[in-house]
């Protein structure tokens, strides 16, 4: 069954990744994993009530859609490598923020 893109989750992940990006030096690449209740994860992202597999699929979609970069690293077993939001990812977030204000 194909995964339906959840723009609410996509936006939340991009905002969380932007916050993570602000915590490390330029050019660094970190592992980001979906949040799993009751389990300590590395750089965990997600929203309450979302299945970790759905969060991981959306993280990978952000890479495919070129909204984020992974520094050319291969995927870890769980999660993704994350380097930074792309210009396209920043524009996507800005457009979502403007749309929310206009509601």
Helix-strand blueprint:
Elements: H1 7-21, E1 30-34, E2 44-45, H2 52-64, E3 68-69, E4 80-82, E5 84-85, H3 87-101
Helix pairs in contact: 1-2
Give the overall shape, derived from the CA principal axes.
globular
> For this structure, what is the CATH class?
Mainly Alpha
Could you give the order of the helices and strands? HEEHEEEH
Kindly report the average pLDDT value. Answer: 90
User: Oligomeric status of the shown chains?
Assistant: single chain
Q: What amount of the residues lies in strands?
A: 5-15%
Return the domain count: 1
Strand arrangement within the widest β-sheet reads 2-1-4
| Biggest sheet features | 3 strands, mixed
Structural class: alpha+beta
CATH architect. name: Orthogonal Bundle
Put simply, the count of helices is 3
Binned, the helix content reads: 40-55%
Write a short abstract of this structure.
This protein is 42% helix and 14% strand. It has 103 residues and is α+β, with helices and mostly antiparallel strands.
Q: How would you describe this structure to a colleague?
A:
With 103 residues, this protein is of the alpha+beta class. The chain has a single domain, classed as Arc Repressor Mutant, subunit A (Orthogonal Bundle), CATH 1.10.10. The chain is built from three helices and five strands. The chain has helices spanning 7-21, 52-64, 87-101, and strands at residues 30-34, 44-45, 68-69, 80-82, 84-85. The chain has a three-stranded mixed beta sheet. Strands 3-5 form a two-stranded antiparallel ribbon. Helix 1 crosses helix 2 (52-64). It is globular and about 40 Å long. The relative contact order is 0.21.
């Amino acid at each position: 069954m194909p995964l339906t893109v959840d723009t609410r989750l996509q936006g939340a992940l991009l905002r969380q990744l932007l916050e993570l990006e602000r915590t490390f030096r330029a050019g660094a690449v970190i592992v980001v994993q979906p949040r799993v209740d009751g389990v300590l994860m590395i750089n965990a992202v997600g929203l309450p009530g979302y299945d970790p597999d759905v969060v991981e699929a959306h993280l990978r979609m952000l890479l495919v859609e070129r909204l984020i970069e992974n520094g050319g690293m291969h995927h870890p077993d769980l999660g993704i490598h994350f380097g930074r939001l792309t210009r396209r990812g920043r524009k996507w977030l800005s457009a979502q923020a403007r749309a929310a204000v206009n509601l």
